[in-house]
Amino acid sequence: MTQAFDAAIQQRLLESRAESALALARRLGADACEVGASVDQGIGISVREGDVETVELSRDQGIAVTVYVGARKGSASSSDAGEASIRAVVEKAMAIACHTGEDPASGLADAELMAQALPDLDVHHPWALTTDRGIELALACEAAGRGVAGIRSSDGASLSSGEGVRVYANSHGFLGSQRGSRHSLSCMLIAENETGMQRDYDYTTARHPGDLQSPEVVGASAAKRTLRRLGGRRPATGRFPVLFDPTQASGLVGHLMGAVAGGALYRQASFLCDRLGDPLFPDWFSLGERPMEIGGMASSPFDNDGVQTRDNVFIDQGRLASYMLSAYSARRLGMQSTGNAGGARNLRIDAPLTAPEVLLERMGRGVLVTELMGQGVNGVTGDYSRGAAGFWVENGEIQYPVEEFTIAGNLESMFRGLMGVGSDTDTRGSIHTGSWLIDEMTVAGG
């Protein structure tokens, strides 16, 4: 990095400011208070057609304070974490609390739930990256893709590297902090032949810069993905099996987690309200989280309420085993926090894994989906309808690319109709999954 960033110093500074905010809130009459503070620094570089387009150095910080006066709550935040700003934020939060209605579910998470184990989860690996070296890597990535026959031009390659510190403290006496880093490299290309032009991309991301794929691998993969889309046509309309590739299957996991999130449940905005214990998937499928996984992309020993995170099983042998709850949503539902304020962390599937080519054979005739468009998912009913692109499959083999079609179904029936999970696991994000083969959906093409 071209700017000095000492994570240890930043951590001590944020911890001190969080404690100052807590002390001030007590003096001003708050019954309880919680503080979140963070600072992040990074570099972002983008190149296009062999030229540097942007070089951005960023440094962001912020502090957010929530106070509780009886059953009243007030929150305020600032992008300036200086001493003067802290006083202004606490005073603003107190003023807001005086004008809000009482909410018996508000308040800190129970003191006995506060995290006690705060191990180093090995998620902080800063990259001593100079601007010149970053430009060199981005250009090499783009050049690797542009050099492949059939690639017409580039939509650019981007490299980013950042690190930061976050701190959470509350008036139970809990103070937790964590340093983290994230690095990524991506490339988007345009291919052309007599049928027209197509665009696609690929990327790599990791906590440790040494775990990134090489620029040459990313560029070549982006070119391969782009070229395979040439000659796209519309598929037939009908009811067919659909195979979601790993990048799209992770979205199905995301829809599931949105439906079991406490906020959706207490608002009665989920098709999984009051469904604990019900079968949702085949009995060979389980899904849970591992928030204490060493080096995980979402690892953390405490959630956004300061509650100790733990391994949770959300789907156990096909049945809905747990909701995903923060302290507030748990109180609204008459339950207890699952340590999920801020969401699930490192979702992992426990199921027999099948080679992708075997899933294609099992499919026979249908659609392999590699891209989804639009927001056509209804969390209340589970109805699902998205624009899609991918490949037509006949006799278990990919025949040609398809585009400009929609797939539709219902999430509950899709989950129940899961026929297999692929061994082609995508491990780049916090959701690790391979392809998902769904037994039948409506495909609307030409």
From TrEMBL:
GO terms for molecular function: metallopeptidase activity. Residues 33-97 form the Metalloprotease TldD/E N-terminal domain. GO terms for biological process: proteolysis. It comes from the Bacteria. One of its GO terms (cellular component) is cytosol. InterPro entries: Metalloprtase-TldD/E_C, Metalloprtase-TldD/E_cen_dom, Metalloprtase-TldD/E_N, PmbA, TldD/PmbA_N, TldD/PmbA_sf. Belongs to the peptidase U62 family. Residues 237-445 form the Metalloprotease TldD/E C-terminal domain. Signal peptide: none annotated. Residues 125-230 form the Metalloprotease TldD/E central domain. Pfam families: PmbA_TldD_1st, PmbA_TldD_2nd, PmbA_TldD_3rd. This is PmbA protein.
